[in-house]
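Hey, can you fold this one?
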Amino acid sequence: MQWTLVIPLKPLERAKSRLADTASDGLRPGLALAFAQDTVAAALACAAVADVAVVTNDALAGRELAALGARIVPDEPGGGLNAALTHAAAVVRASRPESPLAAVNADLPALRPLELSRVLSAAAEFPRAFLPDAAEVGTTLLAAASGRELRPAFGADSRVRHRGSGAAELRLDAVDSVRQDVDTGEDLRAALALGVGPRTAAATARLLIPGQ
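Sure. Predicted structure:
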């Protein structure tokens, strides 16, 4: 079974505001792009993934991620994360109606293809399933089988909301790279400890991060 992944990315100038204690305004857009590039590259290297669609209206991000092999879907609704994912899922399903679909965060810079494959294999056992983030509050991956609606509920406390929507919660060991998204400086240090991709490594080399 091969999956189609949908990855949402907001305009880079508005991304990663919670990293303000770690990176200046001038550096955060570059960090957000690096996170997304390493996430997309790892996803495309996963044997369980057929293709990756990035939903974004950011021109620079669109060019850079398309160069890696991602399909770019414009965020036509412009109504926030869940509206963007619902729109992109419909676009993707129009061309690949039989493919299972998974929404994945754009800020998984330590993502490892084999760990992603394990998560997708576990998700395939359910009509809908999700993986909680490392903080056990949010969600880093939401999956829907062929013929099932994604029904995304990302945002604050999305773990509770996805579980309440009927999606199965995946409880897997040794998939830390799929759970470690980056919102804060502490998250970034945790991702660096796991081992990030080359673009994030280059982007963070300019930062002075305690504990590195």
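The mean pLDDT is 95. Let me know if you want another pass with a different chain boundary.
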